[in-house]
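Meet the record:
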Amino acid sequence: MHSRFESQRNKILETAFTIWARSQFSKTSLSLVAGELKLSKAALYRYFANKEHLQTAMVEKYINDMGAALAAFIKDHGKEPATLLITSYYSYLFDYFLAKPHYYAFLHSYLMRTTPGHQERFLKLRNTIDDLFFSALQAAGHSPDREDLLLSIRYIHMTCFFWFMQLYMSVQPEGTNPHSIDFSQRIPEDKRSRYLNKSIEYGLSGLVAADDYPSVDCAAIETSVWVRPDEMPEPDRIFSAIEAEIAESGYVKASVEKIAARIGINKSSLYFYFKNKNDMLFKTIKREQEYFFKLVLPRLDAQPDFHNKLYAFIIAITSYTAHNPGMITVLNWARYQNIGMSLPKHELHKIFDKFEFLRRALDRGILRGTVEDFRPVFIFVFFFIMHKLRELPVKTTAKTTYLGYTRRIFSLFCGGIHAQLTSEKRSVSC
């Protein structure tokens, strides 16, 4: 009897993963799970007291299964040198998540916005593989500096997960938002191989195709491109209201109703101006984008070549964000509220068109890949920069807080992990 109970319980868990993954875990209704299993909700309550109990069990199952998978990986590949270890890791994760795409959706859309306790357990899981990379990278001649090592390991993880996401994006209808991916799509073997190879190449060797290139005067760019506080726009009232509400209520409990009240209007009045939360954030962020473009594009245009433009781009994003911590707060809130912000196609085109220097670099063979890689490369560069900035002190605007970070990621973008290893150093000078 007990084994039958456990079998049905596991079936409910697997069904919840599969069903809820279709909506990127934005629709976590027990009715959907019950309907798929042809059970009543009352029958589900024999196994799980409520939806929160089921979700907690899903976190437990994910962490236990992923822990077992990583333990198997370490047993098979733990003694490999750094370059081979990274290659094996990418291949292993691609195959693992292709077999369990609902787990990838769970990680991407749910686990990173759930309770601090669950996140802490997940981070402990990730630390297991991070420790392995620490040892392998140091043995290969990587700088022993902890911040350098952590950034390189983050680059390894994010390159792998980003290009896995692009693999699934490649089989979606054009214009699909990342928050609307259908992870039930079958992936052809040739696509799997192509995107796995992209992730390995970008991870190990970076974005730049040449082994050597002219040095970049990073100090001069930091002086001429860094955005000053007096150049920033007036604080946006919606950003300010969201930031104030989050400071008081936290990310999960900061509702649209409370934010509207801080602005001085009710929720229905707020939606008189905005269609929904997505529209509210889109129009607010669009204002920031337009100001950012006006402020920094002339500074990028003044740079003589691609490599200088790339570092100027890094400095522009970093400095603008350093003086605008509310933007980071709003983006984090959107993640916790599971707001999948989708930009209209014409707006995306306008953004991409502003940064033609990346497209031209692909055209001329300066960057790896083909012109079709332009958008994912641009998105990866932007989100890798922003991902780390979300963790830096939000009230710190001193340049010294950021410049070590900007130089390190410039080296990673240009030369990948190879540029960090003594035995395979490339000319990445700053």
Remarks:
- The domain at 52-205 is CATH 1.10.357 (Tetracycline Repressor; domain 2).
- The mean pLDDT is 83.
